[in-house]
């Protein structure tokens, strides 16, 4: 039986590129929250992710990780300050970007791996809220883990990651691969929560 490739089968460069592609799918969630809440600065996150892509494409690009992590710190929302759902995926985006920057700084694949965990966690939490709202008329709301796991949005999340991993395992570590990855991540024109992306 053919075994599924996982992140652990990838090189450090490939794992970093995977995390950057996963973040492309998460980033619109921050923008939507930022616009709605009039909080934060989407361009800070966009610029940081662009910088990471440049580093992956050209290698010579230097990133001042401390400075970037400080900039990120200033635009992280506090969930206690906002009373609508959008703050949660926005926080996940910030944590994922922070993990990627920190993982690159420390050359630590485990920290970089947090990005896909946070992306999946975002989808899972969103589906919990969604499924609970569909049961709002019931006296007792019961959400099974399998309802979340089998939901088309979660299936899409897992399938997207598998496609990226499979592509990366055979790809060259260069600029063209980075461009193809970004294209793959955004091909559906939606964030990982199924939110349409403003082009």
Short structural summary:
Helix content is 67%, strand content 0%.
Based on the model shown, name its key terms.
0% strand; mainly alpha; 199 residues
Describe this structure in words.
The chain is an all-alpha fold and 199 residues long. Helix content is 67%, strand content 0%. Helix 1 runs antiparallel to helix 4, helix 1 (12-37) runs antiparallel to helix 8 (152-170) and helix 6 (114-134) runs antiparallel to helix 8. It starts with 11 loop residues before the first helix and ends in a 13-residue tail after the last helix.
Question: Sheet bearing the most strands, described?
Answer: none
Distance between the termini: 41 Å
Q: What is the strand content?
A: under 5%
Name the helicity range. Answer: 55-70%
What value does the Rg take, in angstroms? 17 Å
Spell the H/E element sequence.
Answer: HHHHHHHHH
What structural category arises from helix and sheet content? mainly alpha
Describe the global form.
Answer: globular
Assembly status: single chain
Could you tell me the number of beta strands? 0
